[in-house]
Every structure is written in C-alpha cells, then in structure tokens.
Amino acid sequence: MGHIKPMLNIAQLLCHAGLQVTFLNTEHNHHRLTQLQQLSTHFPTLHFESISDGLPKDHPRTFDLTKDMVISFKSVTKPLFREMLAEYSRNSDLGSVTCVIVDGIMYSFANDVAEELGIRVITTRPYGACCLWSFCCISKLIEEGHIPVGAKEDLDQEIKTVPGMEGLLRRRDLPSVCRQPITDPLLQLFIEESKTMTRASGIILNTFDDLEGPILCHIAPLFPNVYTIGPLNALVKTKIGDDIISQCLSSSSNLLEPNHNCMMWLDSKPLRSVVYVSFGSIARVTRSQLLEIWYGLINSGMSFLLVIRGDMIEGVKGDDMIPMELEEATKERGFVVDWAPQEDVLAHSAVGGFFTHSGWNSILESIGAGVPLICWPLFGDHQLNSRWVSEGWKIGLDMKDTCDRSTVEIMIKTLMKHRREEIIRSMDRFSKLAHDSISPGGSSYNNLEKLIEDLRRI
C-alpha cells in the first residue's frame, strides 16, 4: 500500500487535469483493490491494467523477499511489459504511450523497455528526499567503511560525509538494507537503482520543499526535473475539491478492509487523549514485541487504538493467547482492530499521538493532521525517517533498536505529557507549511502544474 497509494494519487491528479492515464499494477495487487470501478467512474480517462510479477500465487511477497520479486520482474515481467507497450502503439484506442511514470522498485527494467521504444520516463520513489539522497551516497559510504553496519559496530558513530545531514546521521540511522553484507542482492539493487534512475527525464517526490529543502538542493543537479508534489494525499483533496468524493477515492488504494467501528469509539474520547498505534500494511513483529508494546500502552495510562493485522505476528500458534490481564485492561481504555481508516483516525480530535513504524506515507499523513509521532522503525527507509522526525524536524520521538514495555511507557508519557508543548509547536509549524504547499500558489501546487504542462508537451 505504501507504493500503490501515492501512485494512485498521482494518477488521479493527472486525470483530473484531463490526461489519459493507464494504471499498471501487478496481478497480485490488482485483484486486491476492490474499488477500481468507483475510480473509473469519477475519472473517465483513468484505465487499469495488470501484469504478472512472475511469482507463484502463494508467494508471501514480503520485504525480506524483495530480491525474489526483482529477479522475477527482470526475467518474467520485463518481456511482458515490452509487449504491452508495443501493443498499445499498434492497437490501443487510447493511442500510443508518450510517457511512463515508474515506481522505483521497477525502474531498471521499465526504463530499459521504454528507452528501447523511444518513450519518455519519469521515475518516482515511495520515500522522501532524505532517504533518496542517502541511497545516492551508499557507494561512498561503502568506500569509507560505514557500510555494512554490523551488530557489533558502534551504531552511534556519527556519519559526517553525507552532505546536508552533518551532525544528524549515525550508523544506526542508515536505511535497513545497509545492515546487510555488501554482496547482498537487495543492497546491490539499491546501488544500481541509484545510479540508473538519473537517466530519467525527471523524478516525482511525495514531499514538499519546506520539509526537505536542504536535501532537495543536493538531489536537484542529478535530474533534469524534480517535481515535489506532496503531501499527495492532501493535494488530491485540494485539487479535486469535494471532500466527500476525495475521502471516498482515498480508500481505493486499500489492500485491506478498514474497520470503521473505531471511529465511533474515538467519538467517546476526550480531546487529544488517544494514542493511535499502527505499523503499516506489510510489517511483521514477533509476539514478544507486540506484548511489550501492548503492556507499555497499558502502563502509560493512556487510551489507545491498536491495529493488529491478521498476518502481522510472526510464528503465532493457535495456543498463543493474549494474557487475560492484558485483555481486561484493554477493555477499559483500548480498542483493537485488524485495520483502520488511517487518515480519518489521524484527523479525529481525540487522537493525540501516533505510534508508527515510520513509513513515509504515515509520516506525511501525520504531519498533515498535526499529530506528533513515536517512531519504532522496522525496515527500509524507516530508520532514516525516524531520525529526521526526532532530531531533524523535532516532531516526535525515536524508539529505534529497542522494544521493551518500560521504554514504550516512557515514550508515550513523554509525547503525550512531559514534552508535548515543545513537540506540538514544531509539528504545528510543519503542518501549516504542508497545508501552504498544497494551496494555490504553494510549491507543491505549482510543481504539479509544471508536471502537467511538461507531460502535455511530450
């Protein structure tokens, strides 16, 4: 969902401007999106196609198996994609394809095919500029001996050679892939992608200039065009205009069915009294980790809304029951769902904090809603995001590389009570800047207009 949602937002914005868009997804995810017909009704120029990722139906497609997907994309999906683009040129009622906008993980093979056929390519990344820039610096960090980051290394050693992050970045804050051996296929993929993506005619980033301006200055020379048009979820609502329609459309990217009963529960809670806890759509945790977080929530004395997906807990057996004392305490001030309508939850007046895995969409949605964060990073860009949240932007706290009930309790009390005014001041500032960026005349609003104008010229 972290990739699909922003890509669908881009598609909606381009169609709203009158452009013809075909949204190409893997068959695996295409069949899990249940409201595509509703999108097509609102956007007549938006069309959907799917393509095989070459993996068996029962493949889990989890982050740790990304290398399986990458290998399969290149061997199976690449020739299928080439034939699909060629077929569009020969027979499609929509006309030939003039530009391909590619999600980062598929960039190499998609760019190769598009270049063969003389089609312009614009790349996107599902993470922020800070993480993108760190990936661009990986080769340099390897040369300097900072990567790989081993378990016995000094994880708090400062990294001074990533321009724009001096005084902030430590070894433990590097993206999780940097903890793998240098020969790891996934690490090599990111190195390769960082080099080849600059062949694109531009890059679309789900961020805004006032949030990551100093880092964007380092990225700008790498691309002919950098389109910062975030937060995308909020820009869609600004451009489309009708709040009811835009909220309805935002649910079309859900691969999981949200439980809306939690909204009625939130209605019964006082202002800014609830901690919302969710670790995204694919992250997995151990039963021990979940229990430590759960006990920490109980011991904090705060009300909480906890998301536990059916596939979230690793290695759970039928007899692994939740302790009775935990169940009883949760009945008093907690609410548990298997999935929540996150944007609606964050916008609710009862929610005062967000305990998150630090995914980029979650951070931007929290900034838009003005809800401060507790970050427990798990993989990918999470480690770097959490550092920027706590030390770069000072809009939350970082609980990296630890998970025990006493730390969770302290973090929640610090966010909701002891340092609340300080953190809220910073969050309010960035929330206003985010709103300004997507308003008429704002940087993201204007950058979207430039993107649309550039696409029309192709």
UniProtKB/TrEMBL annotation:
<dbReference type="Pfam" id="PF00201">
    <property type="entry name" value="UDPGT"/>
</dbReference>
<dbReference type="InterPro" id="IPR002213">
    <property type="entry name" value="UDP_glucos_trans"/>
</dbReference>
<dbReference type="InterPro" id="IPR035595">
    <property type="entry name" value="UDP_glycos_trans_CS"/>
</dbReference>
<dbReference type="GO" id="GO:0080044">
    <property type="term" value="F:quercetin 7-O-glucosyltransferase activity"/>
</dbReference>
<keyword id="KW-0808">Transferase</keyword>
<comment type="similarity">
    <text>Belongs to the UDP-glycosyltransferase family.</text>
</comment>
<dbReference type="GO" id="GO:0080043">
    <property type="term" value="F:quercetin 3-O-glucosyltransferase activity"/>
</dbReference>
<protein>
    <recommendedName>
        <fullName>Glycosyltransferase</fullName>
        <ecNumber>2.4.1.-</ecNumber>
    </recommendedName>
</protein>
<keyword id="KW-0328">Glycosyltransferase</keyword>
